[in-house]
Amino acid sequence: MNYQIIDRYIDRLIAETTPDAPIWNIENIRHGKKPGWNYIDGCMMTSLYTIYKQTGDRKYLDFIDRFVDYYVFEDGSIRGYELETYNLDNLNEGRILFDLVKETGKEKYGKAIELLHTQILRQPRTEYGNFWHKLIYPHQVWLDGIYMSEVFYTRYVTERGDGDYSEIIRQFKSIYEHMYDKKKRLYYHGWDSSKTAFWADKDTGLSKNFWLRSIGWYTVGLIDVLSYMPDDKVAEKAVLAEIFRNTVEGLEQYVDPQTHMLWQVVDRIGDKGNYPETSGSSMIAYAMLKGARLGYADKRYASVGKSIFGGICDKYLTETDGKLNLGGICLVAGLGPENNRRRDGSYEYYISEPVVENDAKGTGPFVMAYTEIKRL
């Protein structure tokens, strides 16, 4: 296909977005939430910054600066951010602040970085050293959280810290040791180290199924952390590189030969209610493409990633009244809390969540994958 039409899609997202009403935050639109700092916007800012670096077109950087400027105040406080919730999701958008400090010189972005780093220092941890996903999820580790927190954490250690990546490495290793099914070669969505959550297996603490987007977050977290760590950290990077290779090799067997995508519940291709899902497929495509380019995966994964990306475009990138739309995106999924037992990690639960168009949990990773396609 002519991938250049994706540039037109990106331009549409920018043109129809203001900082207080981004077109891609479908959750806020549906529930009438006030604008606030969130990982969804963070995905878009990160992908748009990569587009800027590739093209040199200032319209992307100017858009990012205008958008983030709305959320970060002069004292470094952040609109809608509450440190006391210890929500790992809220660290993700912090990645773009490192770039904006360099591009704009605005001191407030640096102050905001330090505020978010304060959360890292204070974040509750399991007995194994993993961050709790949120304060309301005690002792719980979700795959999503590794991307939300560890990429920001790595950038901080690299650019402002002491070069000690040991805690970051330990958290990845702990997830690999506790959440990876060696037979299926997939990761479970969640793990409660206390084994008390209603959705957790009483023997292992694990959730019941393999949710694609959570595995996507973890896989992207691996390759992005590797890309931000200095080359002289040979031993540390070797640990993550081995986990990354095992992860993408395991995922390859679940690429559907018909659609060239991966499915919402990864190991149940073709089962009733299941479907090829855009956000997770985009993440896996991005990770494979980037991993092959940087030498952390076999070169052939560039072709596998390109095939997945092409499958997404063929199935879910459509045009209506001259406007491009990206469909097949699971709006949201999670585990609990206690007062929301519908979110029980069952197969029936994952296939029951709404499927939407143009939400940044899908569009952000899609554009990320596109930036790797442009490098081929």
Which descriptors apply to this entry?
single chain; 376 residues; Glycosyltransferase; two-stranded antiparallel ribbon; 14 helices; 8 strands; globular
Describe what you observe in this structure.
This protein is mainly alpha-helical and 376 residues long. The protein has one domain: Glycosyltransferase (Alpha/alpha barrel), CATH 1.50.10.10. The protein is 51% helix and 6% strand. α9 runs antiparallel to α10. The longest helix has 19 residues. It starts with a helix and ends with a helix. 49% of the residues are buried.
Globally, the shape reads globular
Instruction: Tell me the structural class.
Output: mainly alpha
Low confidence ranges = none
Compressed to H and E, one letter per element, the order equals HHHHHHEHHEEEHHHHEEEHEH
Q: Rg to the nearest angstrom? A: 19 Å
- Give the CATH topology: Glycosyltransferase
- Mean pLDDT over the residues: 97
Taken together, the total number of domains comes to 1
How many beta-strand runs?
A: 8
Give the termini distance in whole angstroms. Answer: 15 Å
Bin the helical content: 40-55%
Q: Order of strands across the biggest sheet?
A: 1-4
CATH class: Mainly Alpha
| CATH architectural arrangement | Alpha/alpha barrel
Q: Work out the strand percent.
A: 5-15%
Can you count the helices? 14
